[in-house]
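Help!! Second protein's tokens look totally different from the first
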Amino acid sequence: QVQLVESGGGLVQAGGSLRLSCAASERAFSGYAIGWFRQAPEKEREFVAASWIGDSIKYADAVKGRFTISRDNAKNTVYLLMNSLKSEDTAVYYCAASLYSMSTQMGDYNYWGQGTQVTVSS
């Protein structure tokens, strides 16, 4: 059982930056794909970014060029650096872990964190 804990959310003005962290309990962390998803009010949860073995990385089109995912396997932590934030980035951000694939689909992830709120004021 992998436990994931997100942190780093908060209130920021449009154009600002935040860095989210996802800390995992599992020592085999380096073997997991880690994805970030977000859910805005009254909207479905959507894929944001994912990281897997080596330099394998995916981004949603909406965040390409603004968000950067990185991981520190020694600390069992994945980061999501969010720059040039927009009001439409306001959502609860979740990290998730998968043993099998670096997917954009929620159903492919086995473990989820509790989420952290990001609010971007315009």
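Here's the second one for comparison:
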Amino acid sequence: VQLQASGGGLVQAGESLRLSCVASGNIASIESMRWYRQAPGMQRELVATITGDSATTYPDSVKGRFTFSRDNAKNTWYLQMSRLKPEDTAVYYCAAGERVTTASTSGIVYKYWGQGTQVTVSS
């Protein structure tokens, strides 16, 4: 699976951006997608998850402002970000998860990553 993230840019606080993540390769193996972000000097933060049945989850820091969706026909996942704040400034990465099953466990491993797209929100 290969992922190509795009859509970042420089915006003012309160404005919106839509990030895209286009997947290619063995897309049928993808069970879940995530967006993460990492600001300089900070740990990577999970900002959105979408499952195969399009269920989404968000941390409180972005809930109500970010929306994760998918377009199956285009093999593309979108992160719509609204009412952006300066603290949303970071490099955003999409990640694809596959199920990994062993003799004792089964879980999703996010093993495929896009290259990152910079989002900068000015105050």
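Reply: Different proteins will give different token patterns, so don't panic. The mean pLDDT is 96.
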